[in-house]
Amino acid sequence: MKTIVDTPVWIEYFKNNPDVTPFVDQGLLAGTVFMVGPVLSELLQAVKSEKELEKLTDCIDAAPFMESRFEDWQLAGLLAYKLRKKGITIPLTDLFIAALSLNSGASLFTYDHHFDYIPEVVLRKERPEE
Question: 68: which of 5, 72, 84, 126 fits an S-S bond (Cβ 3.0–4.6 Å)?
Fold first, then answer.
């Protein structure tokens, strides 16, 4: 199954967390772990050194990139609308990741609690031990 890996999971992966690394490594080898635009941007903005940038760039090249479409942006907006009517506001980046997951049939591996408000998204949320 295709899986979108969210930013907090990639961060754990780069820390070589044994609770995350095997899943991501196997997914990269099988071509089932995907990078999406919002996650890519969040990771790049957090880079602190050239060494981190190099490691991130190497990894990004290994993960297939899931392209977005008009329908993904539309669904992100509709999700935002529905949640706001309930008094819930979550970042557009997370709404867009959820829309990509829903429209592509991919699961989402995340630790972000914002996704709890979007029950249609299939999640892996096993938080690694700190």
Answer: 72
8 Å CB contact between 34 and 4: yes
Determine how many CB atoms are found less than 10 A away from the CB of residue 107: 17
Q: Go through the domains of the chain in sequence order and give each one's CATH number.
A: 3-124 (3.40.50.1010)
pLDDT in tens, 74-90: 999 999 999 999 999 99
Q: How far apart are CA 98 and CA 82, in angstroms?
A: 14
The confidence score (pLDDT) of residue 121 equals 82
Q: Are strands 3-5 and 107-109 parallel, antiparallel or unpaired?
A: parallel
Which one-letter DSSP state was computed for residue 102? H
d(CA 35, CA 124): 16
Alpha-carbon distance 55 to 89, whole Å? 33
Q: How far apart are CA 112 and CA 103, in angstroms?
A: 20
Two tokens, residue 6:
């969210």
